[in-house]
From TrEMBL:
<protein>
    <recommendedName>
        <fullName>DUF1836 domain-containing protein</fullName>
    </recommendedName>
</protein>
<dbReference type="Pfam" id="PF08876">
    <property type="entry name" value="DUF1836"/>
</dbReference>
<dbReference type="InterPro" id="IPR014975">
    <property type="entry name" value="DUF1836"/>
</dbReference>
Length: 204
């Protein structure tokens, strides 16, 4: 039964629409408009429904930390939006200090008046391509690891009851899920450490 639930999680996990660069507003937005936009477009990434994808406090903190350029007359440009969206993803793994160091060369350059329209568009589009490729690979690999064979997903209502929401998992299933979570965290931790090493070496 737990494998059936894992299959449902995987299907829902991969069912999202990427926010394309051309769908990020070209006009400058006030802070309320920024938070509303991010909530609508990236809300699916929240762990809990009651969480906020982005708040005014977060935006102010990003600006104070140097991740964002100061707004122009309290309005945020497409440049700001790209940094905000990327920060939303990166902060799941990296510290705010590391994100600031990572973006610092471009942010300082923009603050000095240089144009980085093409650079930011290229970085953002590469991010989308990486996300799609990695998501597809992740789904394939995880399905292989847990042997998600449709023949294993039989109707088990008789064993758990039609109205029951509890998933009955035997000892072997629990052990498999613990190992799976450890595997995912170990992989994420190794990649996180490598990302930090790159920041430490090249983004002083």
């Amino acid at each position: 039964m737990y494998k059936e639930e894992l299959k449902k999680i995987l299907e829902k996990f991969s069912d999202f629409e990427q926010l394309k660069f051309y769908n990020i507003p070209d006009i400058d937005l006030y802070m309320d408009q920024v938070t509303t936009f991010v909530e609508e477009k990236l809300g699916y990434l929240k762990r809990n429904e009651e969480d906020s994808a982005l708040t005014k406090t977060m935006i102010n903190n990003y600006t104070k930390a140097g991740i964002l350029m100061p707004p122009n007359k309290k309005k945020y440009s497409k440049h700001h939006m790209v940094f905000i969206i990327l920060t939303y993803y990166l902060k799941q793994i990296l510290s705010i200090n590391d994100i600031q160091r990572l973006f610092s060369p471009i942010v300082k350059s923009i603050n000095s008046g240089e144009n980085h329209d093409k650079d930011l568009e290229n970085i953002y589009n590469c991010f989308l391509e990486i996300e799609k490729n990695e998501m597809d690979k992740f789904i394939r690999d995880l399905k292989d690891k847990i042997s998600l064979d449709d023949s294993e997903f039989k109707n088990s209502e008789d064993s758990i009851g039609q109205t029951s929401k509890k998933i009955n998992i035997d000892k072997e299933g629990i052990n498999s899920l613990i190992i799976m979570v450890i595997m995912l965290v170990v992989k994420a931790n190794i990649e996180k450490r490598m990302a930090e090493k790159i920041i430490d070496k090249f983004f002083e």
